[in-house]
Amino acid sequence: MRDNTSDSLRKESLAGEKSSSERKKVSINRRKFRKKIQLLMLTSAIAGGVITAEASQIKDYITNQAKVSSYVSEIEENFIRDNIHRTNDNQNYFYDYIAIASELKNRGFAEPEIYSIYKILGEDGTNNVVQFLGEDSLEDYIQKCGCSSIKDFEKMQKKRILLQMEIDSNENQLQEMMSSQNMPTVSDEKGEKK
Amino acid sequence: MTVDSFNIDGKTYLILKEAKIDNNTYYYLANKDKEDDFLIRKLDPNNQQLIMPLDNEEELNKVLLYMVNSIIK
Q1: b/e per residue, A150-187, with b = 16+ CB within 10 A?
Q2: Among A58, A172, B7, B10, which residue has the least CB neighbours within 10 Å?
Q3: Predicted model pTM
Q4: Which residues of B touch A (CB under 8 A)?
Q5: ipTM of the complex
Q6: Is residue B28 within 8 Å of A40, Cβ to Cβ?
Q7: Mind listing the pLDDT tens digit for each residue in A34-52?
Q8: Between A and B, how many residue pairs show a Cβ–Cβ distance under 8 A?
Q9: Which residues in chain A have Cβ-Cβ distances shorter than 8 Å to B14?
C-alpha cells in the first residue's frame, strides 16, 4: 500500500490541469493532520528513492516527533482543554489565558510546558499566557532561557522532552528490575514511605 | 485546528507544507478525505492565481529530495 501511495504521489504530481490557487480554511483534527504529515514524509522518502541510512534517520525523526506530540497532547489535556469556552453566540471559541496561566502556576511548570503551550496556542496566545505568568513577553522569556529565537527554543525543548522521556523510561525499567529481584526500590533508599 | 486548502478536481487538498525552491513555490498536499492521496503542485510562475502540476520527473525528484533533506536536517 505504501509503495502504491508513493507511486501515486509521483504520478499525480505530474498529471492534471492547472487549477485555482484560491485557498480555503478547513477544519481538521490535530492528530489526523499530524498523521498525514508523517505519512507524507515517509511517502516522499520512498517516492524519492532515498537510501536506507536516510530512511532510518527519517524513521527516527518521525518516532521522535510522535513522542514530542504525545507530550504536547498531554499538556493540552491537563492545562488547555478545560479552559476553552464557547462565545455567547456559540459560533466560535476562545481560550481563558488567565485560567491557563493560573493552572500552570499551581501545578508547576518549566520550559517544556511553555513550548507545548506555544505549539497549541501559537505565538500570540502564548505571549498572553507568559504575561499572566509575570513575564514581559514570550520573546523575553525565550531569551531568559538562553535561546536567541523561537526556533532555537523549540529545538532545545524537543531535545529536553525526549531526554526526560528516556530518563523516565530508564527509571521505570530500573524500578521494575529492582522489584522483580526484591531489591529495595529507589524510593525505599530515599527513606520514603510506601 | 484550521488549515489552508486548495480545491483540485472537486476534492479538498490540505496544504501540509509550502516550500520555495529555486524561485518557485511548491505545495505538498494531502486529500482531506483520503488517507493515501498525496500530490505536489507549484504556483504558476506566469500567473499567481493558478497552481499547476510539476513539469517533469527531474523537477519532481528535486522537490522530493528537498522534503527528505528538510526532514533529516
Answers
A1: eeebbebbbeebeeeeeeeeeeeeeeeeeeeeeeeeee
A2: B10
A3: 0.58
A4: 1-9, 12, 14-17, 28, 30, 32, 35-41, 43-44, 48-54, 56-57, 60-61, 63-65, 67-68, 71-72
A5: 0.92
A6: yes
A7: 888 888 887 887 777 765 5
A8: 136
A9: 26, 28, 33, 36
